Sequence to fold (260 residues):
Amino acid sequence: MTADSALPTELGAFLRRHRERLSPAAAGLPEGRRRRTPGLRREEVAQLAGLSPTWYTWLEQGRAVSLSPRALAGIADALQLSRAERSHLFDLVGRRDPAPPAVAELPPELLDSVQLIAGPAYVLDAAWNALAFNGAAAELFVGWLDTPAEGGHNLLRSMFLSPVLRDLVEDWPHRAARLVAEFRAHSGRHRENAAAMAVVEELLATSSDFQCYWEAQEVEEREGGLRAFLHPRRGRLCYRQLTLAAATAPELLLVMLLPA
Fold:
């Protein structure tokens, strides 16, 4: 991958602007001789990132320079980029961050919003454990959210290992295949999440259905749509699913079931 795989002028401008906004004191460097320009010098960023000054200068100038993920991570650390800025840097050059920021804790506002929603609602993490859910969701999702779960309320595990949830979901084979395709898309963005990969390994060993769907290599976004359930007490129920990602924690998904 080279610098010309992104817009060179955009990449150079991005690096230059964030270099100029960082003071030597904030970067742990002495002020030194009088500076003609604000922020750090190019050679100082290169030093902090463990790179050649010439290499970094060429990068700011948009020249065709090989960009390894490790080098980009060094630049992101040197420039003290925020979570969003770091992600943008890797997006500019089409690289995957080798050490993405730690998963954010569940924002309190997100937890509160789940409890205020009238219909079934829940929050999934990168491994699709339900971090929070409201009473309507617990009442609907028998076999998943209605009872305490020793290993956590994991949606994927319950979908394939809970006979009660299998009976609840109308057209289970279609929904289960779609769920695996959606999980592949979501977990693919968080490959470093050990918990997500552990769920996959467990189900590959315990569920032939999951193995079949996983090996099909289907990938789909969690776009929502009509969801039908055959509830043991309330009969057939239909909802439209809406899924939102938190801006401050994109690995978390807020899922709401609205009246169809």
In short: The two ends are 47 Å apart (CA to CA). Residues 1-6 have pLDDT under 50 and may be disordered.
